[in-house]
Amino acid sequence: MSKTATIHIVDDDEAMRKSLSLLMKSINMEAKSYDSAEDFLDKYSPVEKSCILLDVRMPGMSGPELQELLPQHNIRSPVIVMTGHGDISTAVKSMKAGAIDFIEKPFDHELLINTIHKCIEIDTAETSLHHTNNPEKQNSLKQLDLLTSRELEVFEFLVDGKINKVIASDLNLSVRTVEAHRANIMSKLEVHSLSDLVKISIYSKMD
Question: To pair with 127 at 20 to 30 A between CA atoms, which of 42, 48, 120, 173?
């Protein structure tokens, strides 16, 4: 049976590369591993259907630095950013720079697989987060209209990758109050992850 897609795994952690490679093979996808951003740029070859799993922190060139260089190398594969604890703000910036999604380590395998399938299905020429004709803009604005002014404040902090404790300090609120606002925001916007909130923010601000 031929492979359905190629997944490029860019991560300096050998155990992580091996684990992800096995997971990709289990869902009939070809896995190509690279131990650094430089290794990826040296060995990458385009294929019809592909996705890049890109770690944030690596020796030498970082994930975001590699992401910035992809257009210069005519690499158009959609990117999913892999982030560890404490790198959420960086992952958010990566999404604002065009990454399709980000996912936190340690991974829930089902969530990761679903995210990869979503990434593979995306036609980046037509459904990029920065596509000026994206119909999600109006829908996102309608969703944000459901939030109170305080919830909108908390929302902006969240999509900047701020943790609850920092938001509470900046807005002079208790952490518990921030947690309540966060829960209300997720419920009203009918989302389940921070990356979904980031997408709504990006869509709402498109020209």
Answer: 42
CA distances to 16, 85, 148 from 90, rounded to whole Å, are 20, 11, 27
- Report how far apart the first and last C-alpha atoms of the chain are (Å, whole number): 44
Q: What is the pLDDT of residue 105?
A: 83
pLDDT digits (tens, 9 = 90+) for 49-60: 899 999 999 999
Name the segment(s) of the chain with CATH classification 3.40.50.2300: 6-127
For residue 124, what are its two tokens? 């980046």
Q: Are 12 and 55 in contact (CB under 8 A)?
A: yes
State both tokens at 204: 């709402």
pLDDT tens, position by position, 106-145: 888 898 998 898 888 874 444 455 444 455 678 888 899 9
CA–CA separation, 199 and 84 (whole Å): 20
For residues 178 and 156, give the distance between their C-alpha atoms in angstroms, rounded to a whole number: 12
In sequence order, the β-bridge partners of residue 7 are: 31, 51
